[in-house]
TrEMBL record:
Species annotation: Skermanella stibiiresistens SB22
Pfam entry (one): LpxI_C
Domain LpxI N-terminal: 4-133
Coiled coil: none
Occurrences of domain LpxI C-terminal (ranges): 136-267
The protein, known as: UDP-2,3-diacylglucosamine pyrophosphatase
Length: 273
């Protein structure tokens, strides 16, 4: 029998999908919703406890009381300022230990994961619970990138590799060789909206999302869903390129159907070389 899973839930559909998968498998869960990140009005997300992000000690105590053994970090989490975070004694001590590693998302998540494992928990990947999450290689749907889009994708991959080494972001939008925007703290949705105001005449741009160099695949993999397709279409983009095997496509059938209806391409690429 699988051990009880603690789902530390941020925003988006991924936490809900994990809940559904665990229920189908008969696996016990404990959902810890992060205030200001997970959706309180989502009836499909059965939150057992709401907690602010800085309440590290209280969250650990709750997970232990619930007899959780495995933990998955799932969903979008907007990086708060230290003032917003209001760290408790445990979080303050953690930040003092990790120092500069807290400056980047990947560095912070690695440090948090290490601390959870020191506390006796096992941190697992979302894709270990939901086996069909990872983006496959090839075209997802009827459309594929043309020559200009291929050039834009290659440009985007180079940019993310360069900035990803600095733990900056996982997404970039390129149009006709021009970098319209790079994802930072604002997240992919805000990046898409911002670049909608910067688009040039001619063939639309491409959203490229790949993991950072050396990224721990247990958390924060680049993710898209049906809403991403709709947002990109509204912004005048003509396609999305993802790293196959290291990105998540939620509700793949809905993503494909929406992309086909919008005349957009979605492609999974092996960018390991």
């Amino acid at each position: 029998m699988l051990p009880k899973l603690g789902i530390i839930a941020g925003g988006g559909d991924l936490p809900t999908r994990l809940v559904e998968a665990c229920r189908a498998a008969g696996r016990e869960i404990f959902v810890l919703g992060l205030e200001g990140h997970a959706e309180r009005d989502n009836p499909a997300l059965p939150v057992d406890l709401w907690s602010r992000l800085g309440a590290g000690g209280a969250m650990l105590d709750a997970l232990r009381r619930a007899e959780v053994r495995d933990i998955v970090l799932a969903g979008r989490v907007r990086r708060p300022s230290l003032l917003e975070l209001k760290p408790d004694w445990y979080a303050t001590r953690l930040f003092a230990r990790i120092g500069a590693r807290a400056l980047g998302d990947d560095g912070l998540l690695r440090a948090v994961t290490t601390e959870l494992e020191k506390e006796g928990f096992r941190v697992v990947a979302s894709q270990d619970v939901l086996r069909d999450l990872l983006t496959p290689t090839g075209h997802l749907g009827a459309h594929g990138p043309d020559e200009q889009a291929e050039v834009d994708i290659a440009r985007g991959i180079d940019v993310i590799r360069a900035l990803g080494g600095l733990d900056v972001g996982q997404a970039v939008i390129v149009q006709q060789g021009l970098v319209l925007g790079v994802e930072a703290v604002e997240g992919t949705d805000a990046l898409i909206d911002r670049c909608a105001t910067l688009r040039r005449d001619g063939p639309g741009g491409v959203l490229v999302k790949i993991s950072k160099p050396g990224q721990d695949t247990r958390f924060d993999l680049p993710t898209i869903g049906k809403a991403t397709i709709e947002r990109c279409a509204a912004a005048g983009l003509r396609g999305i390129a993802l790293e196959s095997g290291k990105s998540i496509t939620l509700d793949r059938e809905a993503v494909i159907a929406t992309a086909d209806a919008r005349g957009m391409f979605v492609v999974g690429l092996d960018v390991s070389s």
